[in-house]
Specification:
Order of helices and strands: HHEEHEEEE
Number of domains: 1
Radius of gyration: 15 Å
Oligomer: single chain
Largest sheet: 6 strands, mixed
CATH topology: Nuclear Transport Factor 2, Chain: A
Number of helices: 3
Strand order of the largest sheet: 2-1-6-5-4-3
Structural class: alpha+beta
Distance between the termini: 19 Å
CATH architecture: Roll
Number of strands: 6
């Protein structure tokens, strides 16, 4: 069981690194083929739809931004065999002329599945206002 939880934590971290690098195809590959990624600005369905949605979010910026990193914390994993419900918090830290600043923050509500021995997102919802700690 602890191996599964460690693999899930690795999945969450890998997501952050790929997202921050702008690797939308790599980030989308972390989802099951018909997965769903819900953001404040719409959603992507299926790996191609998720990657396209990610690229569209990056395209909204009319000027280059300093590098930002996603930090994922307070990870709570509820395992059910080959599925899991996960809650976590995220913060983006962005460089600025006066030093690091918080860019945004919120939470993730995840449904995961283990397929062929590997964990994937089935449904990932970005929620800026998780307050009750419930799945």
């Amino acid at each position: 069981m602890s191996d599964d939880k460690n693999e899930i934590r690795e999945l969450l971290g890998t997501y952050c690194f790929r997202l921050d690098a702008g690797d939308m195809d790599g980030m989308a590959a972390l989802f099951v083929p018909d997965g769903v990624w819900e953001t404040d600005f719409g959603k992507g369905t299926g790996r191609a739809g998720i990657a396209d949605h990610g690229r569209s979010l990056r395209a909204h910026s009319d000027k280059p931004r300093p590098r930002a990193v996603h930090l994922c914390t307070n990870i709570v994993i509820d395992l059910h065999g080959d599925t899991a419900d996960v809650l976590s918090n995220w913060t983006t830290v962005q460089n600025s002329e006066t030093g690091p600043k918080i860019g945004s923050a919120g939470g993730y509500i995840d449904k995961l599945a283990k397929r062929d021995g590997k964990w994937y997102f089935v449904h990932r919802k970005i929620d800026r206002f998780i307050a009750d700690g419930k799945f």
